[in-house]
Amino acid sequence: MPKLRSELSKVPVYTPGKPIDEVMRQYGLDDIIKVASNESPVPPWPEVQAAIAAAAGTTNRYPDMMAHDLTQAIAGYHDIDPEQIWVGAGSTQLITLITLAAAEPGTTTVFADPSFVVYPIATLLAGAEAITVPLDENHRHDLAAMAAAVREDTRVVYVCNPNNPTGTHVSAEAVAGLVDALPSDMLIMVDEAYGEYVTAPDWSTAIPLALEHSNVVVTRTFSKIFGLAGLRVGYAIGAPRTLASFLATQPPFSVTILGQAAAVEALRHTDRLEQRVKDNQLGREWLAAELGAGGHQVVASQANFVWVLAGDEATAIGERMLERGVIVRPMGPGIRISVGTESENERVVAAWNAATR
Q: Who contacts 4 (Cβ-Cβ below 8 Å, separation ≥6)?
């Protein structure tokens, strides 16, 4: 066994929702639905699938490392300059790389608990110490407490908005207040992986803050509402000089030819996003009402999933749902359940009712 970095023993390995094939083998089932990973329940638009097929014949070549066409398309989508965009292999990669660029041994990061599981992983990979701050009584980020938890050695503060796994959000005004409260040389990373799904009137993107403050970066992804989770495409928005300072951490050719082609084509059809937002909202609200009918609290969500509080029973309920062919994600005292198609949502509720009797 070769000698490895001692810090690796402290780094948790990311655990995804169980694959469908694995559940089929484990339980002897042939009809499985997966609502554990916050994926889009519908495939990419036909034009996107055609663009992927067309690009497949060029995969003997390396992709454009700077993702020029995609960067231009993202710039048009957000009406910003291309220099304010950095493309990566999913926002997860960018979150990790930004953390590696900013944090190091002897420094700290601050994030809510529970929140996206990659934050502690990235922190420990950088050799830094994580400072966690509990969510408030409404399962939202307690931004005042997070600001109070910051130390002189804090390098990164993460805000997941909407939050994963709770689906809760904080207002644009509250995020701006956090930015004003923290030193201008402390990196604030606002993770908006689920931003397109939000319908709450007090939420808005932190992109204007990222363009105004050189220490604020917003991350976005094509994995959710655009339905490209399997191709791993995301991007960060911020000050050009800030983004340029992160580039040394990124492996070459991170975003594949297929991923770039698919994302560019997806951005040609953003007029269709409104229907996906409406469908998600209807499914989210229906799931919340049905799953909460038996007495379990369903936390108010603005994402493409709901988080149902189940206490010590969360793992056992999740296991019983697996036995019924429904893959969900127990996380701490709750179970995170993605919004599916109408038929999938109905099956989720049936399995939930059977598992919680």
A: none
The domains of the chain are located at 6-43+272-355, 46-270
Are 125 and 96 spatial neighbours (Cβ–Cβ below 8 Å)?
A: yes
Q: Which of 133, 25, 66, 84 is nearest to 242 (CA)?
A: 84
Q: Which CATH number fits domain 46-270: 3.30.450.20, 3.30.830.10, 3.90.1150.10, 3.40.640.10?
A: 3.40.640.10
* Strand 234-237 versus strand 85-88 pairing type: antiparallel
Among residues 177, 180, 113, 122, the alpha carbon closest in space to that of 155 is found at 122
**Fold match between 6-43+272-355 and 46-270?**
no
Amino acid at 283: G
Rounded alpha-carbon distances, angstroms, from residue 95 to 39, 90, 154, 164, 168: 19, 9, 16, 14, 20
Q: Given CA atoms 55, 44, 336, 166 in this order, what sign does their dihedral have? A: positive
Measured CA to CA, the distance from residue 179 to residue 324 in angstroms comes to: 46
Three state DSSP letters for 184-248? CCCEEEEECCCHHHCCCCCCCCCHHHHHHCCCEEEEEECCCCCCCHHHCCEEEECCHHHHHHHHH
pTM score, whole prediction: 0.95
Question: pLDDT of the chain along its 357 residues, tens only?
Answer: 898 888 888 888 887 878 888 888 988 888 999 999 999 999 999 999 999 999 999 999 999 999 999 999 999 999 999 999 999 999 999 999 999 999 999 999 999 999 999 999 999 999 999 999 999 999 999 999 999 999 999 999 999 999 999 999 999 999 999 999 999 999 999 999 999 999 999 999 999 999 999 999 999 999 999 999 999 999 999 999 999 999 999 999 999 999 999 999 999 999 999 999 999 999 999 999 999 999 999 999 999 999 999 999 999 999 999 999 999 999 989 999 999 999 999 999 999 999 998
Residues paired with 298 in a beta bridge: 308
In CATH, what number does 6-43+272-355 get?
3.90.1150.10
Q: What percentage of the chain's residues is helix, strand, coil (to nearest 5)? A: 45, 15, 40
